[in-house]
């Protein structure tokens, strides 16, 4: 017999775009896990805490120190449920939730679809470590800025009438500005020389603000992004001229489909994705780290094509007994996410879920009753829960908890 609720300890990676020391929520949540061996260093930047079984940064059972994957391998029927193990054809969790603490822009990226991912993995398994796609959602824990998908075509077309940008348009003028024209523009911006990008950015910042129509943030953002990377970084042009710039508040969420262009800019978020670590980077990173611009351009998808289309709205969750839990269900079926907020002295019950779940408490104090036992809840407490376990929460101080699951 294996316990159905397993408290976990997780780890953080140290990408340079992460927040420094205790400014990083990802790192402080790792540090607050009771009994962890994670040691926070104030001079290190901490980017992402991973919760799950992806081998690059696995989670461990707090009580025994065992790798969560080893325990799932030993007890797949009890911990994953036969239906989920059969559906995904293995004992691995099909999703990977993370906490991200973002101080500056992440590389401009997309996650390849399954077809391309399996080709890239076959060719270069060191860089593309799995054959899976990676749709993802990002749920804001506070103010969150992101570039996500493309602006509507008419807005991009209007910006490209600005003198310094005209040379990115195709030389043979097409009758209509369509997605193929946009692809040409994105590709031209990504291939532009450092000199060209620097000069374009320079001239753009000297234009009067009203030249940018409603996108008056563009001239302000050029120096900000140039300081983070380099004035010659091709990502600046693509992000500012062609992509949606979103300013989200706590509880807002965006969905990134496979092949969808995105770059997160600042904030703390919960992210959840299909089990994959495949990424093509082309901007906001050193030129040497860029994956082929041609590959990037060839798979670009044109959804979302509007800031509104990027938003993933929350829904009422029918198994939330006291209505304190909202559901975020992305269109692809490998995972959904629950966000639970329980005020001082209040309680909440989440009815049985049909598959394995991972839950993290990001703030508050209280208790969880599950499978006949009681567990303390506090920030940095992370649990794996087997299928068909009802979760009874009581808060003594307002609790916020996030649960990734699959059914
Ligand atoms: Zn991503």
TrEMBL record:
* Protein's UniProt keywords contain Isomerase: yes
* Gene Ontology CC entries for this record: cytosol
The note on the cofactor says: Binds 1 zinc ion per subunit.
| SUPFAM superfamilies documented for this protein | RmlC-like cupins
Which cofactors are reported in the record for this sequence?
Zn(2+)
Q: Which residues form a coiled coil?
A: none
The reaction(s) this protein catalyses: D-mannose 6-phosphate = D-fructose 6-phosphate
Domain (Phosphomannose isomerase type I C-terminal) spans 327-372
Ranges for domain Phosphomannose isomerase type I catalytic come to: 6-153
Which UniProt keywords are listed?
Isomerase, Metal-binding, Zinc
Task: List the molecular function annotations (GO) for this entry.
Answer: mannose-6-phosphate isomerase activity; zinc ion binding
Looking up InterPro entries in the UniProt record yields: Man6P_Isoase-1, Mannose-6-P_Isomerase, PMI_typeI_C, PMI_typeI_cat, RmlC-like_jellyroll, RmlC_Cupin_sf
Sites binding Zn(2+) sit at: 109, 111, 136, 262
Q: In which pathway does it act?
A: Nucleotide-sugar biosynthesis; GDP-alpha-D-mannose biosynthesis; alpha-D-mannose 1-phosphate from D-fructose 6-phosphate: step 1/2
| Summary of the function given for this chain in its UniProt record | Involved in the synthesis of the GDP-mannose and dolichol-phosphate-mannose required for a number of critical mannosyl transfer reactions.
Instruction: Return the protein name.
Output: Mannose-6-phosphate isomerase
User: Which source organism does the UniProt entry give?
Assistant: Neocucurbitaria cava
């Amino acid at each position: 017999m294996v316990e159905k609720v397993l408290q976990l300890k997780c780890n953080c990676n140290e990408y340079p775009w992460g927040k420094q020391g205790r400014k990083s929520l990802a790192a402080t949540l790792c540090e607050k896990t009771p009994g962890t061996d994670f040691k926070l260093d104030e001079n290190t930047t901490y980017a992402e805490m991973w919760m799950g079984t992806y081998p690059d940064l696995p989670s461990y059972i707090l009580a025994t120190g065992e790798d969560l994957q080893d325990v799932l391998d030993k007890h797949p029927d009890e911990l994953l449920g036969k239906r989920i193990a059969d559906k995904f054809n293995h004992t691995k969790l099909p999703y990977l939730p993370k906490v991200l603490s973002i101080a500056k822009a992440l590389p401009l990226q997309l996650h390849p679809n399954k077809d391309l991912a399996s080709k890239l993995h076959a060719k270069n398994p060191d860089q593309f470590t799995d054959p899976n796609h990676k749709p993802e959602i990002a749920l804001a824990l506070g103010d969150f800025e992101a570039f996500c998908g493309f602006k509507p075509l008419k807005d991009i077309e209007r910006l490209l009438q600005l003198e310094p940008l005209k040379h990115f348009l195709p030389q043979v003028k097409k009758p209509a500005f369509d997605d193929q024209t946009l692809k040409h523009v994105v590709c031209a911006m990504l291939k532009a020389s450092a000199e060209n990008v620097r000069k374009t950015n320079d001239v753009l910042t000297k234009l009067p603000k009203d030249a940018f129509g409603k996108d008056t943030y563009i001239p302000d953002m050029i120096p900000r992004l140039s300081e983070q990377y380099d004035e010659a970084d091709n990502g600046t042009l693509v992000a500012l001229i062609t992509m949606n710039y979103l300013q989200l508040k706590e509880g807002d969420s965006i969905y990134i489909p496979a092949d969808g262009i995105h770059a997160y800019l600042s904030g703390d978020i919960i992210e959840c994705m299909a089990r994959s670590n495949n990424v093509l980077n082309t901007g906001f990173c050193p030129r040497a780290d860029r994956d082929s611009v041609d590959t990037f351009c060839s798979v670009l998808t044109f959804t979302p094509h509007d800031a509104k289309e990027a938003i993933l709205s929350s829904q009422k969750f029918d198994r939330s007994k006291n209505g304190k839990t909202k559901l975020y269900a992305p269109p692809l079926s490998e995972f959904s996410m629950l966000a639970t907020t329980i005020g001082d002295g209040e309680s909440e019950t989440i009815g049985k879920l049909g598959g394995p779940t991972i839950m993290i408490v990001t703030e508050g104090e209280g208790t969880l009753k599950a499978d006949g036992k009681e567990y303390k809840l506090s920030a940095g407490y992370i649990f794996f829960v087997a299928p068909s376990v009802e979760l009874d929460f009581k808060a003594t101080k307002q609790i916020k908890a996030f649960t990734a699951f699959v059914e």
